[in-house]
Amino acid sequence: MFLRFVDEVIRVLGDYGDERFLRESEHADLASTIAFKLAKERKKSPKEIADEIVESLEVDSDYIGSVESKNGYINFFASYEFLEDTVNVILDEDENYGHLNLKGEILIEHTSANPDGPLHIGHIRNSIIGDTLARIFAKAGFNVRTHYYVNDMGRQTAITVLGIEKFGLKGKKPDHAVAEAYIEANKLLESNPELEEYVEKLMLDYERGDEEAVEKFRRAVETALDGIRQTLKAINVEHDEFVWESEFIRNGYVDRVLKALDEKGLIKRDGAWIIELEDFEKEVVIRRENGTTLYITRDLAYHMWKNENYERFINVLGADHKLYGAQLSRILELINLKPPEIVFFEFVSLPEGSMSTRRGKFISADELIGKVKEEAWKIISGREMDEGEKRKIANAVAVGAIRFDFIKIAPEKHMTFDWSKALDFERQTASYIQYSHARACSILRKAVEDGMPELEFKGELCSSGERKLVMLLSKMPYMVKRVVEELRPNVFAEYLLGVAGAFNDFYRDHPVLKAEAEIRMHRLAIVDATRIVLRNGLELLGIEPLERM
RNA sequence: GGACCCGUAGCCUAGCAGGAUAGGGCGUGGGCCUCCUAAGCCCAAGGUCGCGGGUUCGAAUCCCGCCGGGUCCGCCA
Fold this sequence. Notes:
Helix content: 40-55%
Radius of gyration: 28 Å
Largest sheet: 5 strands, parallel
Shape: globular
Strand order of the largest sheet: 7-6-5-11-12
Strand content: 5-15%
């Protein structure tokens, strides 16, 4: 709805309707700073120009209530009709509210952690960003598929195979068992360097498609993925497909990419096959001297496939892949393929330094999930509620806390993991939003008990607090649009927190159930609209909207 | 050596196609349950927006240089 308001403002401004100079503002519903930009060329003060523009405007929009010129700003205020339509649209669209009518096929690749052990708290930052983007893109109207790209051809998989052969899989959660074998195998390799040759042979056999090797690799990788899937499921993340790197060797795409590069005369043969890129210090090797391919070769093939099947494809990658991503993109462009859109996120480190699966130095996602659930249980266990429901609430609060903690931070911010913060549910977190939602539900439940009226929101009954809340509610589709355009899901988390805050302010100052009939009806409409926005919003963040807590 | 990211109160963070008094939260001190869920709300203290230049009527935001932290520069993935 807010998007419609913006459109109206642009239309009414006519020649001055430049979107670049429109700002959300605490002083207005929308403000234009165009007068400041024109001040110099017109040799007048911004204030004079703003006055003149406002004077000349023909405000023929039902959604614009008033326009003022103040301190050089042109301030637009929404009309009662806009507020009324906003609430009505929300109540009417209900679970669809927030949608945009965008169309297209989108692929989002995320997580894609090496299958050599459990996911750690760095990996799930990737998963949570990717999954949240997928949810928001789907809300925007796109047809979204999610992929987990499985690195089954790496040296680390070969080492894992070695580990499983030498030490077996101890009966824990499968991904943790794989990690143990992998860590042991790494130690073994350090003390017995002659085993390198065997690892090398495993890799060669696997790339050749040797049956026995394929069987061994498949078992190791599937075991790890089995555990990884369980972890992801626990935080409400599911992939549509797991795409194995090796597929692209077997299905001919690797050969096709190499051929395309060769036809463009881009390959320098010097034993190995090499591509030289302008602006990059180092050349890129795409085929080893021994004839085998490298990670980037298969990834190029994967992206050729993506080009053929999707309009937009987005990868979520750790910032350590920035150079890699730039090289990949450049090479794709050289053979006239579209590069992926990449969302980079900075590392999650421990207070004592960075994590490493190989050295067994990491906090697993499973450990985090377990501890946060315990903490949530401590808070709720004493309440008088059905045991099963308490479990369900503790679980939803814990998963919400984890997802929200990761998603609310801008991707480019480095994070240092801190247990005391991870286990703290006080405010600024999912539970705050879930709680606001539960409060709204509670009011509505009670209203139903003593007779729910036909809901009707009335603009002229609006207090400034109510107005502020409804304006925020109108922005949900606008926020979906921003995330789709900017690929920064944290702005949506920030938004939802704002809605919850505005609702809590409303809750404090506006009795609903005890208000006289007309106001009661009007406020119930606001509560219901807020409930819908909070519920839809939480779902976009992959967090369960609780009705009681 | 080269490249990228980050640097906002004790701690975490928003704002960064320049614009109206830099928003929140944690923590600290004080207050609010005869009233719709206190996982909430209110008040207070706390800021050289890393430092130094520059551009501009105007800079947390743009440019240059430093400093601090992180990351990357494999015939690894």
